[in-house]
Write a structure and sequence with these properties.
Order of helices and strands: HHHHHHHHHEHEHHHEHEHEHH
Helix content: 55-70%
Distance between the termini: 78 Å
Largest sheet: 5 strands, parallel
Shape: elongated
Structural class: alpha/beta
Radius of gyration: 30 Å
Strand content: 5-15%
Length: 390
């Protein structure tokens, strides 16, 4: 034990490596077994006999030999901080075996400390893998679009849809698909952001579902392709499920030497969606029409084709929502499989939301709020009549 403690002092001055971190974790797990036996012996009043037996064992020497082999195999060592703590714990453990009157609490504190270190190492390992996967995917950021849409949302303007029958049925229907369409400026993206927030707060945070979303954007080329959609959705799902993380980690390990292809990303997502016994999956793709359908790099067709594959695959408990203008190429693909199709044109709830927004804007304006009721009503009626759902 003394020789091993001296070795630990030396190792704390050597630069760490991920490999050494893994070995140290294994060594500490072994020490948990030893400390567990010591705790049992203390409770039974046989610590001195146990100490003599342990010191004569080859187990500690095996640990030392493993460390020796490791210094030959590695040019760098595990983190100085972790090894320094291991050194301190081993010194305490040595004192416990020498002192027959040591308390059980001392060993239990040592066990808790080592378990805490193991947890920290595992967390650091997961965080490192997450960073590597994220760098490998380099996903476009949909959260900036989402925040912008939430800021545009007038309070209460989306309640008619969020609390309506169609959205409620879509959430609970197995393998459901919702296509929300309307003219430019009709509020599709704002409604989509409201649906996302509702699912995040009421489903994801309660463990009833995983939520991923993407906003297509004609101002950002990275947000106009199937490749961008898949990269973003994979990272979001990866953060919400250990099973999804394992799948993405495997794909990353097999393909990390080169940028991921669209086919690789599509296969990875299908693997995730096909997993049984997972929470419901809610996927949102907003403004599909903002992806080019013609020109040098048409992408809308590829996205529609992939969505159609997902629908036909009938993965368990998958719910997809797409918003767009009712363009011909989009309508031809989405009309047939769509289980819920909603047009914002002529929707009473949308018209009421427009009226509410106009009335609120008038009351907040320092000059317009002074108008007579007749003028206010005329303005509201005129704007409502000419808005056409926009």
């Amino acid at each position: 034990m003394g020789r091993f403690l001296e070795r630990v002092k030396v190792y704390t001055h050597v630069e760490p490596t991920p490999y050494m971190t893994e070995i140290v974790v294994k060594l500490m797990i072994g020490m948990l077994d030893i400390l567990g036996l010591a705790t049992k012996e203390i409770k039974q009043g046989r610590l001195m006999a146990f100490g003599k037996k342990l010191l004569g064992s080859r187990k500690i020497e095996d640990i030392v030999k493993r460390l020796d082999r490791l210094t030959l195999e590695e040019s760098r060592m595990s983190t100085t901080h972790i090894l320094r703590i291991v050194h301190t714990l081993l010194e305490n453990f040595k004192g416990v075996m020498i002192n027959a009157e040591a308390s059980t609490a001392t060993l239990e504190d040592a066990l808790a400390s080592i378990q805490h270190i193991v947890d920290d190492v595992n967390t650091n390992k997961r965080d490192k893998l997450h960073r590597e996967c994220r760098e490998w995917l380099s996903p476009p950021d949909p959260f900036s679009n989402h925040s912008a849409k939430r800021e545009q949302c007038h309070k209460g303007s989306t309640d008619w849809f969020i609390h309506g029958n169609a959205f409620g049925e879509w959430k609970v229907s197995d393998r459901s698909f919702l296509w929300l369409h309307g003219k430019p400026g009709s509020g599709k993206s704002v409604l989509c952001s409201a649906m996302i927030d509702h699912c995040v707060h009421h489903l994801r945070r309660t463990g009833l579902g995983t939520v991923a979303f993407f906003y297509c954007d004609f101002n950002d080329s990275a947000k106009q392709s199937l490749h961008g959609i898949l990269r973003s959705i994979l990272v979001q799902l990866y953060q919400q499920s250990d099973s999804y993380a394992e799948i993405l980690s495997r794909f990353h390990s097999e393909n990390k030497d080169h940028p991921p292809s669209t086919d690789t990303l599509a296969q990875c997502l299908k693997k995730m969606l096909a997993l049984p016994n997972e929470a419901a999956k809610y996927i949102f793709v907003d403004a599909l029409d903002e992806c080019p359908s013609s020109g040098m790099q048409p992408s809308c067709g590829a996205i529609l084709s992939f969505l159609n594959e997902i629908i036909e695959s009938r993965f368990p408990d998958v719910h997809i929502c797409v918003t767009s203008r009712p363009e011909v190429d989009i309508r031809e693909v989405l009309e047939c499989p769509t289980s819920f199709r909603i047009s914002l044109e002529g929707e009473i709830g949308q018209e009421r939301a427009i009226v509410s927004y106009v009335e609120s804007s008038i009351e907040l304006h320092p000059r317009m709020r002074k108008w007579s009721k007749a003028i206010k009503d005329l303005v509201v009626h005129t704007l409502k009549r000419n808005a056409h759902g926009m």
